[in-house]
Amino acid sequence: MPAKVELIAYADRFGGGLNGLHGLLSGPLRGLFGGVHVLPFYRPYDGADAGFDPQDHTEVDPRLGSWDDIAALGAEYRVMADMIVNHVSSGSPQFQDWLAKGDASQFAGMFLTYGTVFPGGATEETLLRLYRPRPGLPFTPYAFGNGTKALMWTTFTPQQIDVDVSHPATRTYLRRILDQMAGARVSHVRLDAVGYAVKTPGLTSFMTPETFKFIGEVADWCHDRDLVVLVEVHSYYLHQVEIARQVDYVYDFALPPLILHALTAADPGPLLTWQGLRPANAVTVLDTHDGIGVIDVGPDTTDRARPGLLSPDQLAHLVDAVHANSGGTSRQATGAAASNVDLYQVNCTFYDALGRDDGRYLLARALQFWTPGIPQVYYVGLLAGGNDMDLLARTHVGRDVNRHHYGPAEIEDALARPVVQALCRLIRFRNTHPAFEGSLTCSGNAANIEMSWSRDGDEAVLRANLGDGSAEVTWTQNGTRRSAPLGELP
Description:
Layout: E1 6-9, H1 18-26, E2 35-38, E3 42-43, E4 56-60, H2 67-74, E5 78-84, E6 87-89, H3 93-101, H4 114-117, H5 124-129, E7 139-143, E8 149-153, E9 160-162, H6 168-183, E10 188-192, H7 209-224, E11 228-231, H8 237-244, E12 249-252, H9 255-265, H10 269-275, E13 282-284, E14 292-293, H11 312-325, H12 329-332, E15 345-346, H13 350-353, H14 358-370, E16 374-378, H15 379-382, H16 389-395, H17 408-415, H18 418-432, E17 439-445, E18 448-455, E19 458-465, E20 470-477, E21 480-485
Parallel strand pairs: 1-2, 1-16, 2-5, 5-10, 10-11, 11-12, 12-13, 13-16
Antiparallel strand pairs: 3-4, 6-9, 7-8, 14-15, 17-18, 18-19, 19-20, 20-21
Helix pairs in contact: 9-10, 9-11, 9-14, 14-18
């Protein structure tokens, strides 16, 4: 059968902990998902960046559970876990030891400073060439125990200290993480922020030839431990095609904005173009714990002569459409309006990005599921959740609009909503219909699109009008051809 759809979830926000998440998967969600990407469960899961700034990758936060709970999940599901490659928490024991002892620390050299990357200094032109998805330069001053200071390289937040991935202490640290994961039945490793991991003076220090070489090296470490590799990089779309040649899977981050463009502009053209270019070894998503990427379909930020999948005018229309559909709430959570956000992402739930239109939301999911690859569904998207403006008001972190904390009663109520029940039926259809093991053909004209999977006489055909959002599925079942509106699949 086709590879089953996978879930993406924070254990604390969807189940209250690892046991609670497992209970949802084996209870009300039984049969829906073949795998689960458990977002960072390390100590602490509630730091400066919702777990992406771990103090210790090899420790499960005891408030969530233990490695035994991860292994229990791994006995029933494909489990994906994050290895944050580029940085560690400023509260990590390694960094704190170095601050206290300086050059006498066994971890001296593990962390990147301005001086280690630019020992002879750097010109204004060199510094401005650095690529960073945040405003300003990537440096934060830290004081040593003896009172001296250093400018630490901090690509993301001041609490996330970049490491030197060529240093023996860093490489030992990363391999130890992989050993722990492999021993706890983790099957897939997501390399987070790996595109920023190699700093090369004079270059952008993002997705350089040295970066690609390092990605291949880490992939080898994973394969030595029978771990499957997924690379997480928001970048120019041709970078994904290049990365896909040397790892097991890449994210299809171009897909979400292309589907939004198709549904907001009634234009299937760019989406159909991408279907002919995209790598087959992709994980497809509409939403994740991050925002909706724009850079993934725009021009190359390092070479504007290379156009994107969408033109600047199309991108501007897309962003304006999302803000309008969300009633302006996404605008409050995006860009300079909120802290700790990616400048090249729009922060919004996918359901709100489509104006809470159930039909269009289901069509967006169908377009995702009909696209080749392994589909993943984010927990807020599973429940067709709206922007959490209360959480944004409390944290002032833009991405938190799409990181709602669901309690048990709220999950039960959401699962009873017609749009969520229809999405669950669509997931089961994608999981079980044999045509999805075959080949795909796509076509479109004006506002219409057709995507058809076929294998040994079995078919699963999606036909949709992007203008009015209507869609129909035609499929074979026991040799009989059946059809139904998308929202009424059995």
